[in-house]
Design goal:
With 447 residues, the protein is of the alpha/beta class. The protein has three domains: 3-54, no CATH class; 59-189, Rossmann fold; 210-371, Rossmann fold, CATH 3.40.50. It is built from 18 helices and twelve strands. The chain has helices at 3-17, 22-32, 36-41, 43-47, 50-54, 103-120, 140-154, 173-187, 210-225, 242-253, 276-285, 293-296, 328-336, 352-360, 368-371, 374-388, 394-418, 425-443, and strands at residues 59-68, 74-85, 91-97, 125-131, 163-166, 234-238, 257-262, 266-269, 301-304, 316-319, 341-343, 364-366. Strands 9-8-7-6-10-11-12 form a seven-stranded mixed β-sheet, with helices on both faces. A five-stranded mixed β-sheet has the order 1-2-4-3-5. Helix 1 (3-17) packs antiparallel against helix 2 (22-32), helix 2 (22-32) runs parallel beside helix 6 and helix 9 (210-225) crosses helix 16 (374-388). The two termini are 24 Å apart. Bound molecules: NADPH dihydro-nicotinamide-adenine-dinucleotide phosphate. The site of NADPH dihydro-nicotinamide-adenine-dinucleotide phosphate (NDP) has 26 residues, from helix 10. The site of NADPH dihydro-nicotinamide-adenine-dinucleotide phosphate has 26 residues, from helix 10.
């Protein structure tokens, strides 16, 4: 079989074995489509069935999560942990709490995570977990009860040298705290079993900022390679959660102007530049809707619906909310308005046809598995600090993060060029991430 036939047959196998898991199919296809030149160069990967193995999780755990709401009514949710690949280290990846969560979403995220973690250069395998529980509108007490029940089952499967979960959509410091407390109570051990912990009980400085800052550092590297920087650039950022807020903060520090952010209801456009303190107050402190912003800043306009944000004129667009939020219509608007760079802060926020169009129109496109790797990178650094029982300064952690993002840009840029797709960072990221995993799997035998 030719290399292309091998990738096609593996994709067909994935479709057959994982019916209805559309997001997982999409993530697998994107990676497989990049790998033919690598298989041509290294036929031993195909001989050892590395592709067939890499698309099959090492372990999938699904469990019932029963909890009592504030009215004393029993509620039942579903929990997941997909331990996808441990060739490079303990499984590592976040937990997502969102009503849209089902097995296909967790598998797509876990699969992406394998390659992302590989790109960081740290010793981390790939995994992901979550639940269809919706923390929105729940009291602190309900969130705590849910987290305790979730961890009562999850704690049987994780550990600081086995599987180290972190946050994702719907899981921030509050949820990590409740889950850590329950883990410690059941297992009677204080270890670095979760990352994103509070700063006075084992967390790392810069973890909160890491994904957003890392995204901006890698875009800055790209700008540098093009002979430019952020000064005077207009930027559109979608979302107003952890990634969006800290991407905005770093862009503003570097002299760029963010003119729009959004949430799942709509977006705000402030031509004078987003006032980040207001966004933090609304989203981080009050947990309210982004439209509150316009009642405080009269220069801003609120529009219902999320897709319209891509019609705002900008030099750089950073989708930082959720999967498939930037479609081909949005991509066309970005191109028409002269956008030159798209960097994915979220996981797979761009649909495949939108990404294809952007690349075809010479928009530099940085895929999430490279561009948002800063979060898991600092999680890896948190694990290292926990093992040594020390805490680094903000400056040290930030410098390490920056260094990792600079290296990722170099690696994906070099891999794209070496394998005949210069400037295509999707291909570069998939290949650079894959080779390290495939080599480790070859070394470790048929497992
Ligand atoms: P948060 O829960 O903090 O924020 C998510 C934001 O996206 C919220 O503003 C939310 O709005 C908005 N949102 C959700 N769905 C939609 C939608 N359909 N359209 C528009 N906006 C939407 O999550 P994070 O910031 O942590 O994560 C964002 C993305 O980044 C995810 O894809 C995540 O997997 C990825 N990521 C996160 C990392 C991290 O360290 N946090 C690391 C790597 C990737 P609302 O307030 O209305 O819910």
């Amino acid at each position: 079989m030719s290399a292309k036939e091998v990738t096609k047959s593996v994709y067909e196998l994935v479709l057959k074995r994982n019916p209805g898991e559309n997001e997982f199919h999409q993530a697998v296809k994107e990676v497989l489509d990049s790998l033919a030149p690598v298989l041509e160069e290294c036929p031993e990967y195909a001989d050892a069935k590395i592709l067939e193995r890499v698309v099959e999780p090492e372990r999938v755990i699904m469990f019932r999560v029963p909890w009592l709401d504030d009215k004393g009514v029993p509620q039942i949710n579903r929990g997941f942990r997909v331990e996808f690949n441990s060739a490079l280290g303990p499984y590592k990846g976040g937990l997502r709490f969102h009503p849209s969560v089902y097995l296909g979403i967790i598998k797509f995220l876990g699969f992406e995570q394998i390659f992302k973690n590989s790109l960081t250069g740290l010793m981390m395998g790939g995994g992901k977990g979550g639940t269809d529980f919706d923390p929105k509108g729940k009291s602190d007490n309900e969130v705590m009860k849910f987290c305790q029940s979730f961890m009562t089952e999850l704690c049987k499967h994780i550990g600081p040298d086995t599987d180290v979960p972190a946050g994702d959509i719907g899981v921030g410091g509050r949820e990590i705290g409740f889950m850590f407390g329950q883990y410690k109570r059941i297992r009677n051990e204080f270890t670095g079993v979760l990352t994103g912990k509070g700063l006075n009980w084992g967390g790392s400085l810069v973890r909160t900022e890491a994904t957003g800052y890392g995204l901006v550092y890698i875009v800055e590297e790209l700008l540098k390679a093009q002979g430019g920087d952020f000064k005077g650039k207009t930027v559109v950022v979608s979302g107003s959660g952890n990634v969006a807020i800290y991407a905005t903060e770093k862009i503003q520090q570097l002299g760029g102007k963010v003119v729009a952010v959004s949430d799942s209801n709509g977006f705000i456009y402030d031509p004078e530049g987003i006032k980040l303190d207001t966004v933090k107050q609304i989203k981080e402190v009050e947990r309210k809707r982004i439209k509150e912003y316009v009642s405080i800043h009269k220069s801003a306009k609120y529009t219902e619906g999320c897709l319209g944000i891509w019609g705002i004129k900008c030099d750089i667009a950073l989708p930082c909310a959720t999967q498939n939020e930037l479609d081909v219509e949005g991509a066309k608007l970005l191109v028409k308005n002269g956008c030159k760079i798209v960097g994915e802060g979220a996981n797979m926020p761009t649909t495949p046809d939108a990404a294809e169009l952007l690349i075809e129109k010479n928009v530099a496109f940085l895929p999430g598995k490279a561009a948002n790797a800063g979060g898991v990178a600092v999680s890896g650094l948190e694990m290292a600090q926990n093992s040594q029982r020390i805490s680094w300064s903000f400056e040290k952690a930030d410098a390490e993060l920056k260094n990792i993002m600079v290296n990722i840009f170099k690696d994906i840029n070099d891999a794209a060029e070496k394998y005949g797709s210069k400037g295509n960072y999707i291909v570069g990221a998939n290949i650079a991430g894959f080779i390290k995993i495939a080599d480790a799997m070859l070394d470790q035998g048929l497992v």
